[in-house]
Design a protein that fits this description.
By secondary structure, the protein is mainly β. The protein is 5% helix and 41% strand. It has two domains: 6-44, no CATH class; 58-164, Distorted Sandwich (Coagulation Factor XIII, Chain A, domain 1). The protein has one helix and eleven strands. The N and C termini lie far apart (59 Å).
Length: 187
């Protein structure tokens, strides 16, 4: 079959013994080859680079362990869970970690002993008890690569606006849905 875009042909492989098809020895193969029209279309194709590939790291959902709220509100001194992709916090770069930056610009790094779960798809940590109610920029910075054996040379980060205390109506930033959170993030 020749469509101009491609040429397709069917071939039978193997020797037919005693006029009987034997799937163990015989097979049907379909071959496709590029046709002249498709070759010309490929030559005329232009590629537009629209930017760098986005990071596979993302926050898909959040939950406050104290209130079970999924609206990006958090309770100081209580566990807070993030779900998403490539969230595991690892690496030796000084920027690696979990930070909370208040609307006034004060940055608080969450100590490692406050990390409860540190997995690629789930990160749970205790919100420092001394943080005042208000709007914060939560930033996760890691050198986690595609698996536990691959570390990135340059750290990458993901951010989400959260609220310690009660979230304003409308909730947090629009960086995802509920992320498939369990009703009880602590198990």
């Amino acid at each position: 079959v020749n469509t101009g875009l491609y040429y397709a042909s069917v071939a039978f492989r193997g020797v037919i013994e005693n006029s009987t098809w034997n799937p163990a020895k015989n097979s049907i193969v379909v071959n496709f080859n590029v046709g002249a029209d498709l070759r010309e279309a490929i030559k005329a194709t232009t590629v537009g680079i629209i930017g760098e590939k986005g990071s596979a790291m993302y926050i898909g959902g959040v939950q406050d362990a104290s209130t079970r709220a999924q609206d990006a509100s958090a309770t100081a001194g209580r566990a807070f869970t993030l779900t998403g992709g490539k969230l595991k916090v690892v690496g030796t770069d000084p920027s690696v970690g979990i930070t909370l930056k208040s609307s006034s610009g004060k940055e608080t790094k969450v100590a490692e002993d406050l990390w409860v779960t540190n997995d690629p798809s789930k990160l749970t940590f205790i919100i420092p008890a001394d943080l005042e109610d208000g709007t914060y920029e939560l930033k996760i910075t890691t050198q986690f690569g595609s698996n536990s054996k691959t570390m990135l040379k340059v750290p990458r980060s993901v951010m989400k606006t959260i609220y310690i205390g009660t979230a304003p109506s409308g909730g947090g930033s629009s960086s995802g849905g509920d992320g498939g959170l369990d009703e009880n993030p602590l198990g």
